Amino acid sequence: MLRRRVKPFLLTYASLVLLMAADPSWKAKPTAQWTEEDARQVLTKSPWSREVRAGIARRESEDELRDGGTMGQPKGVGYDNVDPKGSGPKLPANPTAIFTGSNVRSTRSVVQAITLRLRWESALPVRLAELKSGEIDPPTLEGDGYRIAVYGIPSGNFKGDPKKLGDPLKEEAVLRREGKKDVRPLRVEVFQRTDGAAVVYLFPLSAEITRNDGRLEFEAHIGRIVVAQSFNLAEMEFQGRLEL
Question: Nearest-5° angle of CA 236, CA 239, CA 243?
């Protein structure tokens, strides 16, 4: 009796495991047959699009700012509204602060985190999915190269030319591969969107990223926001070729 009950359960469980491990539907279809749901999966949960948990560095104290030759908290991309006053849980009162000299006053004074989306805009499956989904005005840069976009940066009072906004971020981003020279972006631009700002990086094709590189690390500092994400290049093949 027990065996008769357990066996169907095991078969059902095995079927569920296989179903969960199966490739997403867009992988098994010609692109012309993609549905809007297929396109959504490519744009939100695929080897080319990842939801990442980025860190928010603590705000420097006034003493630290003065020591660095700065007065007042920095403003701009990656600083404005990343942790607005009054946001998040309050830290418990510290009755010993007067004796210890602690200057921790709120969650803005400690390391925090923010959820962002990282997407390879130059990858063919992403471009096809954007067309299929009718996504309006995806951020683009002039010139050929590997394009990586970071979505969900809090909007602020920063205005101006996207390139001028992005220039300070050029030296704060890198692609890394084991045994090879770090790759810096050629251009960085910042685009204001209804869902926050998007920072787009253009890396040179001369980097010649191949499947043999194994893993690729993307790192970027955007104001106080620190993004770090690893990509398995073996997973980023589409129609028989590496797509970045």
Answer: 35
